[in-house]
Amino acid sequence: NISKNLSLYVCVCKLVLNSKQQGKFVELPGAEMGKVVVRFPPEASGYLHIGHAKAALLNQHYQLAFNGRLILRFDDTNPAKEKEDFEKVILEDIDMLKIKPDTFTYTSDHFDQMLDICENGMLKEGLAYVDDTNGDEIRLEREKKIESINRNNSIEKNLELWKQMVLGTEIGLKCCVRAKIDMQSANGCLRDPTIYRCKPEHHPRTGDKYKVYPTYDFACPIVDSFEGVTHCLRTTEYTDRDAQYYWFCDALKLGTRSNETRPYVWSYSRLNMTNTVLSKRKLTWFVEQGHVDGWDDPRMPTVRGVFRRGMQVEALKQFIVAQGSSRTVTAMQWDKIWSLNRSIVDSIAPRHTALLLSNSNKENAVLSYPPVEVVVENVEKPYKIDNVPKHPKNVQLGLKNCVWAAPKILIDYSDAELLEAGRRATFINWGNLLINRIERNQNNNNIERIYAVSDLENTDFKSTVKVTWLPKIDYSESEEVLPILVPIVCVYFDHLISKAVLAKDDDFKQYLNTENSRWELQMIGDSELKDLKKGDVIQLQRRGYFICDSTYQPYSIHSGKEMSLVLFNIPDGHRKSITTIPLPISTSNIKDKKLKKKENIAVATDSSINAKKVTKLGLEVQKVSENLGEWYSQVLVKGEMIEYYDVSGCYVLRPWAYRIWELIQEWFDARIKRKPLNIQNCYFPMFVSQGALEREKEHIADFAPEVAWVTKSGETDLAEPIAIRPTSETGMYPAFAKWIQSYRDLPLKLNQWNSVVRWEFKHPQPFLRTREFLWQEGHNAYATREEAERDVLITLGYYEYVYKNMLAVPVIKGKKTEKEKFAGGIFTTTCEAYVASSGRAIQGATSHYLGTNFAKMFDVHFEHPDTHKKSFVHQISFGMTTRTIGVMVMVHGDDRGLVLPPRIASIQVIIVPCGVGVKTSNEVKDNLTRTCLDVCNRLKGDSLIESDDENDNSVIQHRNSSLIIRADTDLRDNYSPGWKFNHWELKGVPLRLEIGPKDLSRNQIIAVRRDNGDKLTIPLEGRPKDDGGNDKMVIRITELLNQIQQDMYNKAEQEMKENVVICRKWSECAAHLAAKHLLLIPFCGRPICEDNIKQDTTLDDGTADLGASTMGAKSLCVPFEQPKGADILKSNDQCIHPKCGHPAGSFTLFGRSY
Question: From the CB of residue 276, how many other CB atoms can be counted at a distance below 10 Å?
Fold first, then answer.
């Protein structure tokens, strides 16, 4: 026991070694030194990518930490995808990763045993059945928890159909074997999953021996058990399948050969990288379409691709170790892994010199001029410079032997622009040179030649310009063996995908960056570069790190040409783009020499700027449907509304966004506390017991997949899991039952401002669809239905006010259909908004009449005053979320950023001083600043005056003006007025006031509207007051803000009216949807018909990915305001769907929605 405990202690020490650099590795439950067996099971259908590398290296980590065994198993259960060539490739990739498995196996090694288990262990025991239902129907039945008609087949019938499958007959091809688990489970993976398929296809190893093949989910626990696996490591996307894995283990009494216990499943986060797809199908598409050179293209996230680009194995290992076995799923930035790589290659990369030749981009714009000749007038002939190290800090790399000085040398044109006559410059590895004169072309002012003298005795290198150079040697003038300059092609790469994080519903082909993801620069380099071998890593001084992809070949009499050295740039993790690559150069004359030098200095020092700081201020995409998702993300981030968080689907609300929510909250909260509602605020805990959830199964069923559970306290499992509220009925209504005993306790009206969590969903988008969101939720109880229904409509009216009068967003009020209403309620009312850029509707807020349904669930009753009998209360609930902010951004935002309606803008007016130059006197500057501050104070209603009475505990605010505007000034002196204009436009401030010296002399200010760009001149008169005591300037700006608010609403309302169309013909629906319209259609109201409409309008419009479909139309609401006049619904109108035939009950709003 002492030896065993000591071994385990050593193991744990290994796991926490270098914890500052490593992530947290969780100790494997039940792990014993020397007995841990893990496995890495790739499918031989493609090259390994870095996601596979993480899995392999993580398994290797535990193999080594516990002195255990690692099995490399080829999962070959799908013969259509298996290729022997890929097996060889994977083995080579594993070798490149320096992973040494202890055993190599195949799932197909156990096909016979699994056939026996399926027949004798499953079918004959009644644990499985054979189903001939078609795949689409099976999928639909599983979603709706409907049992198959074959679920209760006799064992004899199952065995007969199984025999047909094994033989691969026509009957067998229609069948599959399904495990009989639990069709009513909230976990979809337990709803009778398929375990065997009939696929008479040729298998690379077993040939045509088998006609049936097991699914991965069935084979995995069986083979793990057979091979003695103790711990099964897999990504969190399989978490829902863990219960299924254990069910097979228990049902088949599977245990490992080493200790006769079932394998333990441990989940870790899948590796996601920004601007990257890791799907084999998508990566194959890049290869097959010729967008990349192959699977080892440096832009590919494959193991071979990243290694060819210069990734070192040790850097990849450090990157994986830094993450540990965390379960948090995040999109990791490539900068992090390349930064680790840089720390490794920096110490081993010899230093070399290269100069840019003349380069142009695809548009023939000049990127770089050819090198400039420097004539060193006091050097007569070439000579060798000794004792130059290959690496300044790594003497083990040795010395260079081909560094030569010469009477004429070459330098980069950009460096030449930095030199000044009469000043010294340091030529690296040589010394200081004094610049005598600079010759320029009189036509275009370009530098043609520089004259200098060597000043090697001067060793003051601190204040000099540093220059890399190469000798320009005339070989005809010397008999010595002199160095030659090597032609180089430096290849730079960018991401294949332009969008950082692709959402689930995003079509990756809409974000291709293939045309701009590879570019080349021609250079010449020092002589020693001719000796590089493929795979050598070097540093080109002041240009970055490179890996040799193709060696230099001198002139050949056979080919008749010289082959350039090809170097691939290795990212260093410091910047998003290669800032050492020159930008296009203007060919126009530059008369101001000093200005030109400043520009070049800025370019030369740009490499030190962090990537986030060189990002463009403005938006990089337009607000069109193809780029809407990326536009929306950029607007929110660059407009300082949100910051992305390291938990997927969660976002940081920055003050600019949170203030909008506060303004909405302030109005709504004050309104509901007044008559006629008289609601009070309260707060209930965020945690809900499992028992409370189970009491309202019908209601919570819709939320079940989204409920997040707390299952542990530290490392201890809770006795009972606790849910985090997806909504608050379950938490609040037991309290209602206690507080309501008599009719005198009614009505009970409560509201709370809080957050809720709904964990599982597709396509997260800030504000619109998030895992945690802020909201207001009201819950009221009444004695009568009439009271309840009245307040449902009142609260809906308040929501309409928020959208129309505060957010300037028009909405359509109506009632949800039976299919779309709130689960467990009687009816749901809603406000539906419309986003013109996407042609989709979005639910703005809802108010529900719950009837007595929830009262009966939670026994919320009162003694009736007349009958003195127990009566159940009538309840309503209503809610509005931060989705309101997202709707407002979608509706009003434009190609320049946010456009905020004045009533919800944190800053309604921004005042920017402008027109100040170097010749502007301090007196004018001071006067301009005072004026800006004075205008700001006038708009804000002057300063607050606090009471001096020490006994008065309140702060009484007095203002000199009854009109108060949220205004601010931008007096920052480190940004130009133009930059400020763009900044505040991006943030959507409704009105900008510009004040310059000329405006002061004219006694005016310039007002610029954000919504339409109009400029107006407003008189700037001291402080004249109107008869009512108000400042005329303030009144004028107030009127302008009100006009902006109204104009924004009118524009949005017009967009909605133009895109809501009445459609009576089924044949016209598809065309209207394609035109981004919402449809008012005659509809019967039946859920089955609603499903048919959605399904039959889900058609491929030719713009989506191959096989993908465009979203079908769903019901949005039955508008309260129905068409009138000639468009009125007629008594003989039938439901629009051709297969329905039922009378239409009303016009119902249908469309694509968020």
Answer: 25
SS (H, E, C) 373-391: EEEECCCCCCEECCCCECC
Structure tokens at 1036: 């004028």
Find the mean pLDDT for residues 549-557. 88
CA-based angle 54:55:60, to the nearest 5?
A: 95
CB atoms within 10 A of CB 849: 24
- Cβ-count burial 576-589 (b if 16+ within 10 Å, e if not): bebbbbbeebeeee
Residue 23: pLDDT band (50, 70, 90) is very low
Mean pLDDT of 253-261: 60
In the predicted structure, residue 588 carries a pLDDT above the cut 80: no
- Strand ranges inside 852-900, DSSP E: 861-863, 870-872, 874-881
- The per-residue pLDDT for 601 is 34
Q: Could you give the 3-state DSSP secondary structure of residue 342?
A: helix
Provide Rg for the chain, Cα atoms: 36
Short-list 333, 882, 368, CA closest to 581: 368
d(CA 1011, CA 346): 51
The residues, ordered by sequence, that sit 6+ positions from 1057 with a Cβ below 8 Å of its Cβ are none
pLDDT of 351 above 80: yes
> If we measure between CA atoms, which residue out of 507, 509, 497 comes closest to residue 1109?
507
Contact 569, 578 (CB under 8 A): yes
Give the per-residue pLDDT at 389.
Answer: 92
Both tokens of 76, joined, read 């070959």
Backbone angles phi, psi at 1071, to 5 degrees: -65, -40
Q: What is the mean pLDDT of residues 427-445?
A: 93
**Distance of alpha carbon 28 from alpha carbon 1022, whole angstroms:** 76
Maximum CA extent, the chain = 123
Provide the pairing of β-strand 366-368 with 1015-1019.
unpaired
At CA 281, angle to CA 280 and CA 283, rounded to 5? 60
Mean pLDDT of 867-877: 94
Interaxial angle between packed helices 883-892 and 1032-1059, expressed in degrees from 0 to 180 and rounded to the nearest 10: 90
Cα–Cα distance for residue pair 982/638, rounded to 1 Å: 11
Contacts of 99 (CB under 8 A, 6+ apart): 40, 56, 57, 60, 70
Strand partners, 383: 405
pLDDT of res. 45: 82
CA distance 1089 to 1095: 10
Asked if residue 554 has a cis previous peptide bond (ω within 30° of 0), the answer is no
β partners of residue 272? 331
**What is the tally of helices (H) and strands (E) in the chain?**
30, 52
Residue with tokens 């809603």: 830
Cα gap 438→422, rounded to integer Å: 10
CA atoms within 13 A on the CB side of 798: 26
d(CA 462, CA 464): 6
Neighbours of 917 (CB within 10 A): 6
Please tell me the predicted confidence (pLDDT) of residue 789: 97
| Position 113 pLDDT exceeds 50 | yes
CA gap 334, 309 in Å, rounded: 13
3-state secondary structure of 626: helix
DSSP per residue, 92-129? HHHHHTT---SEEEEGGGGHHHHHHIIIIIIITTTSEE
Looking up tokens 């100069």, which residue turns up?
Answer: 355
CA-CA-CA-CA dihedral for 208, 213, 216, 218, to nearest 10: -140
Residue 444 neighbours by CB under 8 Å, 6+ apart: 587, 589
Q: What is the pLDDT of residue 626?
A: 61
For residue 1085, which of 1152, 1149, 1153, 1154 has the smallest C-alpha distance?
A: 1149
